[in-house]
């Protein structure tokens, strides 16, 4: 029997199969021809440019991405993918008007939904970062390409929710659920939006324990924002004045995250209240840190103002000669005076200066160096040691200690304690490639003292007299960091005020992490200086900071401004055995540290530790 060409199959089936093979081969040839046509010449160059632009955008190389998309546009002037890509870049750069123009032009040129640029994906990326304006533009483009995209509808609802447009948010959440009933996150947010609408407010700023500090009012009224502690946290929360187009504080420097996100600060309401209460009516500032982490537990500046009534009080506040809007804790520099003696003593200990080569020193209340008068607060008589120099805060004793240390070493230890270093408090957003920070004035110290007179001033935290800026200056925040470094075994931590930020869905988008700024001195040196500071409070010039039952380490200081007005300083930490708090008190033009600042510190510790 004769077999068919494939064994048991009939000739009919065999030839039918052959015909299909020929058809498929022809289709493959045509497809190959199409691919060759599509990706040859102009088409190939265009698509390579688009692919490169998308790749560079994903890697954050916006300049290269823009170059690629513009190159594609030169090849094909009305290329919708190139226009769409340029819109993508404009959103990243927060130029939303430009982005909308590009996106509109791309749609008019024939843009359809595609996998190359997925606007729902990019909307979700911005949503996760709590950048709702950016997300809203991306979701809008996604919905123009596909009006029935449940993820884009949900994302748009989140953006509306974040902006406080709760009726619109609820509508979008419901649309998303109608298309995708199992979209649990939309159901959850729908419930939250209804709850917020019933409350009539969205809380967005909190202290470290979750206590609210600010809320966004959804019911239209004279003030859209309410600050819970009002004037007590005015220089932290800041304000937004729509009428005068001005904002300050967190409201200014974290505006891209407000409202919509929940921002938790390191500020502790209890500690902040203690600082405000203890300051009384003194003009100045208090900063309180956690020594082991650098968390800012309190930052209070006085005179203060009421952010809740800023529109009504505007001219009374702005025209006030005492500058209530000025945050004296971080925005103003002061001569440090004797609080800087801890740096001179640290340099002496670390360089093994032999006290017998320096002391005893006679303090008659004044002396001369290089023919210029050099003063002490009083006649201390014979100063026998470093310990006595610190306990009595003797300028002349410290000057001779500075001579032994030498100007270059004093400068070295100023740098070890953070002088000349920027300590802005904020964070870096990787998506936007942008730093969000509350700026802090940079402290600076003398360098290259020309003679013994200048070294004597340098040793005691004093500036060279005369017109012009201080040659030695510090912010109260930095002064608190000096005390914190000694409390923390010689390690100075970077200060920070933002504990974490959570987006509208509760996802943590930023978390503050303790970080080392400087390893200023050894633990042994820190322990020695801490001991001297304890003695200063127990037996010396800092007695007015004493609190029964608490061992406090402190150092007073008195400096002056260019008008000769005295500024009162006190830096300290407690309990000495296991420091929980490090603080700086500054009385701006209020007098001597031992009389003004030390008692304020004592009152703070009574509130916090008893």
Can you walk me through this structure?
This protein is an alpha+beta fold and 610 residues long. The chain has a domain at 41-199: Alpha Horseshoe (Serine Threonine Protein Phosphatase 5, Tetratricopeptide repeat). Helices cover 45% and strands 17% of the residues. It is built from 22 helices and 21 strands. Strands 3-2-1-6-16-17 form a 6-stranded mixed β-sheet. Strands 8-7-21-20-19 form a 5-stranded antiparallel β-sheet, with helices on both faces. It is elongated and about 115 Å long.
Q: By CATH's scheme, which homologous superfamily of the domain at 41-199 applies? A: Tetratricopeptide repeat domain
General shape: elongated
The helical percent reads 40-55%
Give me the number of helical elements: 22
What is the highest CATH level, the class of the domain at 41-199? Mainly Alpha
Count of strand segments: 21
Main sheet properties: 6 strands, mixed
Strand arrangement, major sheet: 3-2-1-6-16-17
**Which band does the percent of strand residues land in?**
15-25%
Q: Measure the end-to-end span.
A: 111 Å
The helix-and-strand class reads: alpha+beta
* CATH T-level topology of the domain at 41-199: Serine Threonine Protein Phosphatase 5, Tetratricopeptide repeat
Gyration radius over CA: 33 Å
Average pLDDT figure: 93
Regions with little confidence, pLDDT below 50 for 5+ residues: 1-9
CATH architecture term of the domain at 41-199: Alpha Horseshoe
């Amino acid at each position: 029997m004769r077999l068919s060409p494939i064994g048991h199959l009939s000739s009919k089936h065999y030839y039918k199969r052959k015909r299909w093979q020929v058809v498929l081969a022809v289709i493959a040839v045509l497809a190959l021809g199409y691919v060759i046509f599509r990706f040859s010449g102009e088409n190939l160059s265009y698509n390579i440019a688009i692919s490169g632009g998308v790749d560079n955008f994903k890697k954050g190389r916006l300049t290269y991405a823009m170059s690629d998309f513009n190159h594609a546009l030169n090849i094909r002037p009305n290329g919708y993918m190139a226009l769409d890509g340029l819109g993508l870049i404009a959103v990243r750069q927060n130029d939303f008007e430009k982005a909308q123009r590009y996106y509109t032009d791309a749609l008019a040129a024939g843009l359809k939904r595609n996998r190359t640029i997925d606007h729902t994906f990019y909307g979700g990326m911005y949503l996760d970062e709590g950048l709702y304006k950016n997300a809203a533009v991306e979701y809008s483009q996604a919905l123009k390409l596909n009006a029935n995209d449940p993820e884009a509808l949900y994302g748009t609802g989140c953006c509306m929710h974040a902006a406080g447009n709760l009726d619109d948010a609820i509508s979008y959440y419901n649309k998303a659920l109608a298309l995708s009933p199992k979209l649990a996150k939309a159901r959850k947010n729908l419930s939250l939006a209804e709850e917020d609408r019933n409350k009539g407010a969205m809380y967005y700023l909190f202290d470290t324990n979750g206590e609210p500090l600010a809320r966004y009012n959804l019911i239209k009224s004279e003030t859209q924002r309410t600050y819970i502690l009002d004037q007590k946290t005015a220089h932290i929360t800041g304000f937004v004045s729509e009428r005068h187009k001005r904002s300050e504080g967190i409201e200014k420097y974290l505006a891209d995250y407000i409202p919509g996100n929940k921002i938790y600060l390191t500020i502790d309401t209890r500690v902040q209240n203690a600082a405000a209460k203890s300051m009384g009516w003194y003009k100045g500032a208090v900063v309180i840190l956690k020594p082991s982490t650098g968390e800012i537990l309190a930052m209070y500046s006085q005179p203060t103002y009421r952010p809740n009534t800023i529109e009504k009080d505007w001219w009374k506040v702005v025209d006030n000669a005492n500058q209530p809007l000025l945050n004296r804790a971080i925005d103003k520099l002061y001569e440090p005076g004797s609080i800087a003696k801890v740096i001179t003593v640290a340099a002496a200990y670390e360089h093994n200066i032999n006290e017998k080569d320096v002391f005893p020193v006679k303090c008659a209340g004044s002396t001369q160096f290089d023919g210029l008068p050099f003063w002490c607060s009083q006649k201390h008589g014979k100063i026998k040691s470093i310990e006595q120099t610190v306990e009595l805060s003797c300028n002349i004793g410290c000057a001779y200690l500075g001579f032994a240390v030498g100007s270059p070493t004093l400068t070295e230890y100023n740098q070890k304690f953070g002088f000349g270093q920027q300590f802005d408090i904020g964070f870096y957003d990787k998506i936007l490639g942008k730093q969000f920070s509350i700026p802090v004035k940079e402290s600076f110290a003398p360098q290259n003292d020309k003679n013994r007179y200048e070294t004597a001033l340098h040793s005691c935290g004093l500036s060279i007299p005369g017109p012009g800026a201080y040659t030695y200056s510090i912010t109260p925040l930095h002064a608190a960091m000096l005390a914190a470094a000694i409390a923390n075994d010689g390690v100075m931590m970077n200060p920070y005020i933002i504990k974490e930020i959570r987006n509208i869905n509760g996802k943590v988008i930023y978390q503050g992490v303790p970080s080392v700024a400087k390893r200023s001195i050894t633990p042994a040196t820190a322990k020695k200086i801490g001991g001297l500071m304890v003695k200063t409070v127990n037996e010396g010039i800092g007695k007015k900071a004493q609190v029964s039952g608490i061992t406090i380490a402190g150092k007073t200081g008195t400096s002056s401004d260019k008008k000769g007005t005295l500024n009162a300083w006190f830096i300290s930490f407690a309990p000495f055995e296991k420091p929980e708090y490090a603080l700086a008190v500054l009385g701006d033009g209020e007098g001597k540290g031992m009389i003004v600042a030390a008692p304020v510190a004592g009152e703070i510790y009574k509130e916090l530790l008893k």
